[in-house]
Design a protein that fits this description.
Elements: E1 10-13, E2 19-22, H1 32-39, E3 43-47, E4 51-56, H2 68-78, E5 88-92
Antiparallel strand pairs: 1-2, 1-5, 3-4, 4-5
């Protein structure tokens, strides 16, 4: 992430633009089930420096709406014009089980 801030919690970025802080149920790491519930399906991981973005692996196939905030973050980091769709979660790498 460009000018990446150190995130000490998960950030759920919904496709509608709203965001909220989320923490793992066990207080330290998100389980696969928790991540799948947040993104609404199978997960795909996008690695940033010390953080990770978890997206719905089948989001484009399922025609989920574009997530403008997540897409902007992706473009800022990778310079790619690809779109991120659906709800995502961003958290430190150490928070993924």
């Amino acid at each position: 992430m460009n000018n990446e801030e150190q995130i000490v919690y998960g950030r759920h970025i919904k496709a509608n633009g709203s965001t909220k802080k989320v923490n793992p149920k066990n207080g330290s790491t998100f389980t696969l089930t928790e991540l799948q519930e947040i993104v609404g399906g199978y997960i795909e991981l996008i690695y940033f420096d010390t953080n990770i973005m978890v997206v719905n692996e089948e989001g484009k196939l399922n025609k989920l709406p574009i997530n403008e905030k997540a897409t902007d973050m992706y473009i800022d980091s990778f310079g790619d014009r690809g779109a991120i769709v659906g709800d995502v979660i961003i958290c430190p790498l150490v928070m993924i089980e």
